[in-house]
Amino acid sequence: MSVPPTVVSRRTIRLGFSDFWTGFNPQDNYFVRLLRPHYDLVITEKPDFLIFSSFGTRYRRHRGVRIFYTGECVEPDWDECDYAFDFEFFERPEHYRLPLYALYDDPAVLIQPSGFDPRRVLAQKTGFCCLVVSNPRPRERLEFFRVLSRYKRVDSGGRAFNNLGTLVHDKAAFLRAYKFVIAFENHCHAGYTTEKLFEALRAECVPIYWGNPQVHRDFNPHRFINAHDFPGWEALARHVLQVDQNDALYCRYLQEPCYIGNRVNEYVNPDNVRAQFARIFQTPICPIAQRQRLRRWARRRFRQLRRVYWKWRAAMSTRRIRPDLPTLTQGESHRRDIENMEN
After folding, report:
1. Are 82 and 152 found together in one domain?
2. How confident is the model at residue 135 (pLDDT cuts 50, 70, 90)?
3. If we measure between CA atoms, which residue out of 30, 60, 18 comes closest to residue 270?
């Protein structure tokens, strides 16, 4: 007689989201899609684990475990969260580096297929270089845009520096037509890699990148042109023109895999991210919110005791000066101390 398979019940996780960007869907997002195949998720307003971001302060109402996530160039406040996912290269068990580009698409889409032909990609390119951004900062982005535009036209389809007369609505399709994409971050900070480089690579372009000085830990440095490797914008622009005029050199960039070893890097590997969440769900802690509450209670009690002490000191001083005053019995003194503390 065959033995029926053992049914292993999955753990139920009460999960919530707070203070994310406009349009964020708590029921369908990167974290839900990552965890739902392995846990029975209950998305609720009263969760045991709250994932919150940097666009508000509603998370402060939550008394359970707080998990901070941001794709912005801001550091976690460890007085406000128990765990953090962000772009920093922190070495501590409560922290995990999860760059923003992981949330834009499956990182595996950048794995180069066997038989990849860069000449086929080059033959489909109809434009020289483009830019699609809404934020005019930083100044480095505008400076290089102007320098490169003096040599050859650069099409800009975003709200910033727009020279097309209309806004681009399908960014992926727009990028795919160009050989180069100016992929400058909003900030130059170690570890801060957003979607800009990822989107250009996904469109099979050669990105011109500026931002994270350690970007080689995310992507293959031979697959894009790194502005940090050049002494100035003029030198960078001349190199871009040289690659543009040399099809063999351009195809050499395209031939390189996006990831070192053509494998998804450790930071955005879904198995590694899930392993960090497993540690969070399995580790019993006293949440920072409850510790804050205890600290506030301790400070309040300390102030009350201090007031009682100084009143007692004043009474003793008065007793020494006026020995004719009646002395409180021990019971009366104790009762008054308790009344003062309660008030």
Report:
1. no
2. confident
3. 30
